[in-house]
Amino acid sequence: MKSGGAAAAFAMVGAPSILRAADTVKVGLSIPITGLQAILGETLLNCYKLAAAELNAANGIGGRQVELFIEDNQTTTKGSIDKARKLLNEDKVDVIMGTIISPERSATLSVTSKAKKLFFYPTNFEGGECNRYFVATGPIPMQQVDPMMPWVADNLGKTIYIMASDYAWPQKMTEAITAAYEKAGGKIVGADYYPFGTTDFGPAFQKIKSLKPDVVWSMVVGNDAVTQLKQYRSFDIKQPLIAPLDEVFNKDALPPGVAAGTYAPQPYWMALDNPVNKKFISSFREKFGQEKMVNGIGEAGYNGLHIYALAAEKAGSLKDDDVLKALPTIEFDAPQGKIRVDASNNHTLCHSYVGKAAADGIGYEIAKDFGTIAPVTPYCKL
């Protein structure tokens, strides 16, 4: 018995730290379950649940089960700060993931960066973040906009009018759209921003009728996007619309057919024809309902938990710096295609597709595939 005990003790000393630590890997989720982005929060949460279930059905992370700690940040700055502090200080999570719009992200990062704790962000965003402990699994503007604008100029038209919610992501996207579109021979004829909670977009539609742009690009988000798109149709505007819509939003928030014919640049669509995506959709629907849709934000959250798991296992540790060191060395076969994290900025090399909403206003067809786009970040060299 003494000999066996000594051998066991020696084995434990020699084992990676991930195997010697607590029984579970604690993943903190900050999700907008209520508020402006609750429309998208449920799907994001479910994608994290699916990734955790897949990991736990295999070997967990390094033999430890994944335990999710879920908090509703209410789509607010204060809520995001409070929940991040709770997750780190009370729940003692190993990593934080989630949030959707920029104020949620910035508020969460203000907490995680000071604590030097990893924060995985799944949403397409305006860029500008350069923090060793911040990992972006969604695209920045140059990954969505730069490849798309020559295609827009050649296929949709040479002039664009922009209408958007008034916060960081649409503002930086407008800068990127303007630069890339002008390079492709196009022109932005106007851009107007609206505060959250706007109920009347009539002035924008009157301007569209006056300016007569070839294309309208909307970056009105959340519940406001529902109001905006209904009014867009009621004004009988004929120009093609590019908008931040997806299958989840279209099915759960909009009247049938309203989104038909709209375009959107995203790294993921349910229509992607590959075995990994088909399994992802099948597993998601088996777990959450056969009529459920998934989207790019949810897929990026799902990817984030999986790449964290792969990096932690390769590192043999849950220490933040160890995981970060391993992160750029792994590749994940995601539903959108193979992805990896760029070591110079902790941003993900994402795929770039233009989707066009089908006649039912829910699903999308792939209008153009631009392949994998590396994240070019002059603002960040880690």
TrEMBL record:
The keyword Signal applies. It comes from Mesorhizobium shangrilense. Belongs to the leucine-binding protein family. Signal peptide: none annotated. Keywords: Signal. Pfam families: Peripla_BP_6. The keyword Signal applies. Residues 24-359 form the Leucine-binding protein domain. This is Substrate-binding protein. It comes from the Bacteria. SUPFAM superfamilies: Periplasmic binding protein-like I.
